[in-house]
Amino acid sequence: MNAFVAGHSPGMTKTRAYRDGTLQKEDFPVAEAAAVLAEPGTVVWIDLCEPSEADLSRLAGDLGLHRLAVEDAVQEHQRPKLDRYDGHAFLTAYAVRFGSASDRPQTSELAVFITPRALVTVRKEDGFDIDAVTDRWDQAPDLAASGVPFLLHGLLDHVVDGHFDAVQVLDDEVEALEDLVFDDRPDTDELQRRSFRVRKNLTRLRKVVGPVPDVLGSLMRPDLHLADGTTRPYFADVHDHARQAADHLEALRERLTTVRETQLNLQSDRLNLIMKKVTGWAAVIAVPTAVTGFYGQNVPYPGNGTTAGFWVSTTVMLVLSVGLYVLFKKRDWL
């Protein structure tokens, strides 16, 4: 029994075999892949979850996978890319799961070996929804005759749709921030926290979404023969969606910068308005103060010279001071 079969439970491995565009068998052992491929007109898909380099060595020998590609397939944090080797291509991409803008986007790294008659997907962790990919294949049986390009298109279409959905979540959050900026009494601290969180999420997404259009553009090159005549329009559609997601992401970065600049400008305007109002109040109070101070007036007030008068005057000053504080606080001047 090979190392892969001994080291992993059956639930961690998925396989399919298509012959002449028809699904023939599923969930057969990886050790049988070479025998299945020996049958004419057969295309195989193998999915491995969290394999080690030793796990891939037997499969690499059967399919002629390059050693450097195998190393990249098990190492984490590879950049999205498409590498070309003799007899096969190697692709790295990231799926994104994003519940809401308050969450941190969860990314699942995916390595893909693309041979003329086999597609091997290597998931670095179990967060990638591979069942959604197989459902997408089942919904497009008319493309199955294309073989590996059909499998690759369904996989990339699912990944790019996830990118588009994640960018849309952030678009909704940026729009909410734009509305919050123009509230009559915006919560400045909350606005800054949400802006900073969205900026961090945009940066994370940009690393995994931004390079995808170039990767797909390279994949569609005629000399690589990774997209046939039937699937080429479908790959072009996925490429267009990936470009839209990347461009939308860049537009959101600019909009978020505009939100921050607008917030600072509005804060400056409100501060100037408050200073103008407070200065007006100070001017009103300064006039009688200046007059009485200049002439040294000392007008007796009710209770002058008595203990009760002292407490009355003190109470009046406290009430007026507290009243001004409450007024300024209510108007958000303090």
TrEMBL record:
<feature type="transmembrane region" description="Helical">
    <location>
        <begin position="308"/>
        <end position="328"/>
    </location>
</feature>
<dbReference type="InterPro" id="IPR002523">
    <property type="entry name" value="MgTranspt_CorA/ZnTranspt_ZntB"/>
</dbReference>
<dbReference type="GO" id="GO:0015087">
    <property type="term" value="F:cobalt ion transmembrane transporter activity"/>
</dbReference>
<dbReference type="GO" id="GO:0015095">
    <property type="term" value="F:magnesium ion transmembrane transporter activity"/>
</dbReference>
<dbReference type="Pfam" id="PF01544">
    <property type="entry name" value="CorA"/>
</dbReference>
<dbReference type="GO" id="GO:0050897">
    <property type="term" value="F:cobalt ion binding"/>
</dbReference>
<keyword id="KW-0812">Transmembrane</keyword>
<dbReference type="InterPro" id="IPR045861">
    <property type="entry name" value="CorA_cytoplasmic_dom"/>
</dbReference>
<comment type="similarity">
    <text>Belongs to the CorA metal ion transporter (MIT) (TC 1.A.35) family.</text>
</comment>
<protein>
    <submittedName>
        <fullName>CorA-like magnesium transport protein</fullName>
    </submittedName>
</protein>
<dbReference type="GO" id="GO:0000287">
    <property type="term" value="F:magnesium ion binding"/>
</dbReference>
<keyword id="KW-1133">Transmembrane helix</keyword>
<feature type="transmembrane region" description="Helical">
    <location>
        <begin position="278"/>
        <end position="296"/>
    </location>
</feature>
<dbReference type="GO" id="GO:0005886">
    <property type="term" value="C:plasma membrane"/>
</dbReference>
<keyword id="KW-0813">Transport</keyword>
<dbReference type="InterPro" id="IPR045863">
    <property type="entry name" value="CorA_TM1_TM2"/>
</dbReference>
<keyword id="KW-0472">Membrane</keyword>
<keyword id="KW-1003">Cell membrane</keyword>
